[in-house]
Write a structure and sequence with these properties.
Layout: H1 8-11, H2 15-32, E1 39-43, E2 58-63, E3 72-73, E4 86-92, H3 101-111, E5 112-123, H4 128-141, H5 158-167, E6 170-178, H6 187-192, H7 195-203, E7 210-217, H8 241-251
Amino acid sequence: MSGEIIGLHQWLETPPGRYLLEWERQHFDEAVTDVFGYHALQLGLAGLDTLRTNRMPHKWLGVQEGTPAAAFVTDFAALPFAEGSLDLVVLPHTLELSADPHASLREVERVLVPEGRVVISCLNPASLWGLRQRRARLYRRLGFGQLFLPEAGDFIGYWRLRDWLRLLGFEVETSSFGCYRPALSSEPWLARYAWMDRAGDRWWPILGAAYFIVAVKRVRGMRLLGPAWKNAKSLSAAPVSIANKAHQTRAD
């Protein structure tokens, strides 16, 4: 990797980026397959279709301004959806790239229905990748060295994110860590350390380079007597119908 500062989308095309995407794509596919409802939203990372295995009839892709994608542009802390109108929201590295991740998560809680799910992936600061990035940032202040991960964005620790979710009324349903190989930029060298993925799950499970959380929105005092499906007309006024059609095509 060169010494230039690159964004997340460019970094994901590098060998470690592709390695990370492969692990995350598998987990997103498994996590969203059996989440039922009518309305699903992915925020950020347009290059990864996290909803491709989900069968909801209405899917949207929301991106921030300046992102090249067939999607609608929105402020992640002010989504153009009514309160309690979405069944599933997916956040692939969205929070760590957000200017105000806590505000973005509060907005996700607002638009989700009771018992709706949020699926989140983040890079783990307590990992070999996180350690190399912190060291590289220190070296850069001294005028030399290069970053391993993209410059933009801040790591969010796993337990810190769990605390945020708990305070907003979410209950963590499942969580997992992955990508235990060292912070290497060469594909052959990454392949040599494939054994660490198997060992990591057993011997140092919370030290993976990335982590994955599925959480459920709980509402105190509410008991659902049947499916929480809503009439699709409830979102007919949302200003995203064209983006929905484009993203639906890719997801199918």
